[in-house]
Input
Amino acid sequence: PLQKDHQVQFQMMEAAYYHLPSPSDSERLRPYLQRQAIATPPHFPQT
Amino acid sequence: MVNNQFGMIGLLTFIRAAESDPNLVSLAMGQDLTALGLNLNSMENLYQSFGGPFSDGPARPQDIDYPVPSEYLINVSIRDKLAPLSKMKHYKDDLLFFLFYTNCGDVMQLAAANELYQRDWRYHIEEKVWIMRVPGNTHYDKNGSIERGTYYYFDAQNWRRVPKEFQLDGQKLDTKPPIAIT
Amino acid sequence: IDEPPGFLERSEYLLKDWITIFHTHATRDPIKSFSNFVNKMNIYGILKGDEALTRFFRHATQMCIDVTYRNDPTINNTKIFKYIDPYVRLIALLVKHSGETSNSTTKLNLLNKILGIVIGILLKDQEVHKQNFQQLAYHRIFIMLFLELSSSDPVLENIMTNVLTAFCHAYHILRPSIAPGFCYSWLELISHRVFLQRILATAPQAKGWSMYSQLLVDLFKYLAPFLRNAELAKSVTLLYKGTLRVLLVLLHDFPEFLCDYHFGFCDVIPPNCIQMRNLILSAYPRNMRLPDPFTPNLKVDMLSDINTQPRIHSNYAAAIQPPNFKKDLDLYLKQRSPVTFLSEIRGHLQISNEPGSRYNVPLMNALVLYVGTQAINQIRAKNQNPTMTNIIHNAHMDILQNLAVDLDNEGRYLFLNAIANQLRYPNIHTHYFSCALLYLFDEANTEAIQEQITRVLLERLIVNRPHPWGLLITFIELIKNPSYKFWDHDFVHCAPEIEKLFESVARSCM
Output
């Protein structure tokens, strides 16, 4: 059986398991600087 | 024989458990390490594109923020002094798709869309995907605006052109994108 | 305590002002924007002393954390990052420009202070929020600060090794057993491609590798209690698989690192984590070509590398405690007496401060490696290399044989594991311990010893790859060489699955 402090660690890990880091959390935001902003057709990707 | 978990019988218990419930012995029997998304036969180092301990594949070029010379970063104050668009027709489809997907809301996106249209790619308004007929393949069953046959579509997730059999409603294809007034 | 009135408001105003500067025209002229802002910090009394600066960073960090709890990180992490990234940039610029360009001390004092503040807030936050603890902001602060400080810049390059030391120190303080709510981010941070590059590829090897091995030991120690159970929880499986991925990258790109530090890792990896341990023990130097273990009539002792001394960056001799035990051991090794010493060894090994295990595994591992290396030194002193004949009838083999005979099943299993952990790539340790294990099998006075030697080898072979080279050549020799009468033993035929396994290995050998 797990020791008491390991139980606590396990519960914290279990909780963290439900909001994991994603690879993009470790990447810079690259604010794309538009050169010539323009209204493109709405069905084109906008982001 | 040793009658506890430290002899052959103990190992035999694991082996038999592995047959009935592999989860029980995932540590002792291990797993196929080539299936963890790392190209272990790569001649290159893996760490430069390591996608992280919880991702099933390497980081793709577009995921990685490479330290580029500051000149490459378009500075707000100089961007309109930059050279005008080069001739789109010199670019390969791959680059046109890259410009289309990474320059949202920009003239570049329209220019790329236009050039793709010239090359017989068509943008499906609902599926939001570029498709084209397979050159040379004339076998398309037509029924009104519905067409059926094998087409290419561009898979932006895996970044490749994929042949696929499907039924297509011509009315859902985008017309020629408005030319960008630059 | 006794904070000047309005200090919090001033701090908040300054942080928001900087964030605006960052997102509008900092790209136009970063240095000018920064120096204007530093003047403003000065006017607001932030830079007038150590205490004011500490207060400012504590408030600013707390504001970044509060933004995370106010926004749902799964939806709005871009908004959170747009708040945190400027703050990190400010920290990086202050670190870079504090003190004279050449004065790294002020820069590093400031960096360590800020890392300490973030760590303090994280641990407090984890204590307060418990299962609702959100790791995102801390993850972002650490990784972005590391990326900012490891960008190619002559001033920063000059302090890079110290920056690495500061981050390794911070990550060690935040190791998973201390901050379990942060464990997934922690593994992301220590295995980030830029961090790996800096600490394993470009830092001075002795420094970077040693610090990184400490972080991996922290990880294995944390995982160990959860890996002892046969059935793994999903949260543990994810962290375990993530660890395997990191080890595979190390095996592929930095095998020498795993070679040098394998001993410390095997001390903390639970015995049932066979594949993970095999992965570490399978590492071999990239300039070495391994002969195919299944080569018929492979003459191991004729291999060019077989008598090279492997590097082992663990002070295993110092791990032999208590001091009087080490003294008695050295005395016995020197004069092969008093014989009573042999009967005392077991007692020392059964004093375990690790709750739940009856044996002191690190002491067992250290004792086996120490006795083996002392034996090798003695053989080399006679200008010889280990062979089946010159490793026997001496004090070293007395001790190994005594351990094989005197320990109970569990103790012997751990003892044989300690030997099997040395069966790696062609080197003199692999050679010595391979001969020793085969000798113990040959000279065993009970079949149980032979059965447990077989068990320890077989369980390492039936697991998915990779398999250490030294393990394969030892097992092949055991089943091929008729003098060990391997196939005559009942335990070889105890069940059809076992018999099939042996025959399949035997077929690959033939």
User: Anything to note?
Assistant: The beta strands of chain B are 122-124, 129-133, 141-143, 146-155, 160-169. Residues 51 and 63 of chain B are 9 Å apart (CA to CA).
